[in-house]
Amino acid sequence: MAIFGITGTPGTGKKSISPIVAERLRVECLSLNELANSYHLVKQGSGDVDVGKLRTKLRRGLPRDAVAYGHLLPYVLDSRAVSRVVVLRCEPVALKERLRARGYEPKKIVEDVEAELIGVVSSDAFDTFGKEKTWEVDTTRTTPGEAAAIAARIAESGPRPTPRIDWTLDYDSGAKLRLLLSTVE
Fold first, then answer.
1. What pTM value is reported for the model?
2. What's the rounded Cα separation, in Å, for the pair 140 and 96?
3. Is the separation of the CB atoms in 46 and 7 below 8 Å?
4. pLDDT digit string (tens) for 84-115?
5. How many domains is the chain partitioned into structurally?
6. Parent domain of 142
């Protein structure tokens, strides 16, 4: 199988879904954030990861078959390292609520919602891994088990990709965008 990647904006479900997928596929589950911490590559205070050093470490030490997950996936692995990649997506208003429930700071919520709205992680995944290896899965209204089942099917047989998700079509006015990206409710 090689590495099956799961990525997405924070709050889309990577941490919930990835272990379920790994269990179904009977492979190891690797959190890129946990690996960065274990390698002491997280900068104190900012939480930023030295992606260059993480990329180098991962080239030397990934198991042959595993589910690797994290929002950093497109920045630390290349197309040769993965068999397929799923980008978890979530409708921006639902994502905003998830992040708020987690206690994220308002500024971080706006940053992550904006990134999801314009598809930053998705675009980077398609650029890094190519359209032949990259799928999107909408987790807005699915349970972790349902989303994991979809991801596991993609890992095993790779059904043809569906059209890419474009949330911007739903936010076609300044008023809608201001409401979405406001830190005040």
1. 0.92
2. 11
3. no
4. 999 999 999 999 999 999 999 999 999 999 99
5. 1
6. 3-90+121-165
